[in-house]
User: What shape does this take?
Amino acid sequence: MSTNNMSKIGTLTVLALSIAACTSNPNSHSPFEISSEMSGKTETTAERQARIKAAQEARLKAEAEAKAEAERVAREKAEQERLAKEAEAKRLAEEAEKARLAQEEADRIAAEKAEQERLAQEQAERERQEQLAREAEEAEKARLAQEEADRIAAEKAEQERQEQLAREAEAKRLAEEEARKAREAKIADLTKKAQDVGLTAEQTTNYANANADKSDADAKAALDAIVKENRDNKIADLAKKATDAGLPQTQAENYAKAQTDATDAEAKAALDKLVADRQAVKDDLKQKALDAGLSDEQIQNYVAENIDETGQVAQAALNEIVKQNNRVKELVRLAIDAGLSQDVADSLANNNKQATDEAFKTIVNAEKAKQAQEQANALKGEYANNPKNELVNKNFISSSSSRNSFTSADRNHQVIYNLPYSVVVGDYQGAVEYNNQNGQIFTDNRSTNIEVKGLKTAVDALPNEGRATYSGLAFNGTIGLERKQTTDSWGYPSYEYVDVVKNGKLSYTVDFAKRVGFGRITGLGDDIVLDQGSVIDAGISSTAKQSYRSGNYQLSFYGPTAEEVAGKVSFGNKDTVGFGGTRGEITK
Assistant: This one.
């Protein structure tokens, strides 16, 4: 862009900006206004508006001219840049064409050089192939010559080999003929030796043929082995015949060894005598055992155990059996007198022949206790397997609410107290309110039933003197909460509250001499007093009191000799409390 153009753009721009500044501010004074004021003339409104309009039109015209000038300058600049780019592009194209032509010339020269090299290589390959052909022709001639030489040498070698084979075959034939004659001579010798020691014809033939090619020492060892095997087989056969005839193993083996060199008839006669002698001993022992009163089984065992013993040893064994039989009879009498059946008495006596009277009485008492326990379990039925000497609660339907020590519950549940010879089962259904700390019942609207099952003591088995106290547990169907500690999966202690049956303590004293009993239950609220009652038919019944309430109780004795008591307390004609206990020492 020229300097004149730049000067024109600058002047127009300044003039346009000055006019814009004057028209944008109504309070400002244009140059014309200043001139008017300075001349002392007053400008009218119409003149002023005309002046402003003229100024605005001048401004717009100046702006349009400035814009047009700027666009012209820009176009001139763009054209100059375009021409410069076209000149540069033309220069680059000319340089590229020069480079292309130079490359084409270089490629042509390289192609000519490559063609010359290819032709040279083809000429060299033709010369190499011609050389290889000449060498192959010479090698083939040499190979044919070598093959002919090898054929002649092979024919000569084969002829020599055949001659050598013929010589070796003749030598082998002569050696085999000599060996055959020697083998036949040795077989004849071995046959005679085998016949001399008593081998069978088949054994002789087999032995001679099998050892004809062995050394004399090996052949002799083989013959000795056959002789020993024949002797062992005969001993085994004789021993089997003896055991089949009833002789014991040791006697049968001794007989067989003694008859090894005997004829078959001699061996049979010897066996028949041994069998007859043994039968005579057996008959004698059997008669003595029969005379001594032994049972058939004892006779059979006695004879079998003593047939090979001396008469003195056999008689001592018989005396010991008779002594043991007498002892068994005494023990059986003791067991039957103690109340055991004949079969059980026989079994205990036979299994404990060496026991003293006192030791056997202990065994009998243990058996009686076992039978009593089995009988008690059968009478207890489904409750027999419950844990013993603790209260077990079985919930069927249960709902309850508690506040502090007060609980209101509606349950259908069962409380079980299992003792060795008896079980007390309490069935409770319905609503009840109670103190969950001590088990005291406030209101009881339940339907209840308390039943005792087990082995009742026979009337004549009750003690007749002394007094004893029974101790155990009691329940009234109330349930409390107990905090129990457990361990979580990480090994840390944790706590939970579980339902537990509120249990009371029974203490009941029986005077067997006076035939009366009385006691008390604690731990279920106010003490329950069990008034004195009389023993009637292995049981006691009397009145019971708990604070202001009155009722009654009844119990029975359980176990072979009144080892336990078990029963229930009723208030308001309702089974309320179940209890049981085991007897302490009877004091006189």
User: Anything to note?
Assistant: The first helix runs from residue 3 to 24. Confidence is low (pLDDT under 50) at residues 1-40.
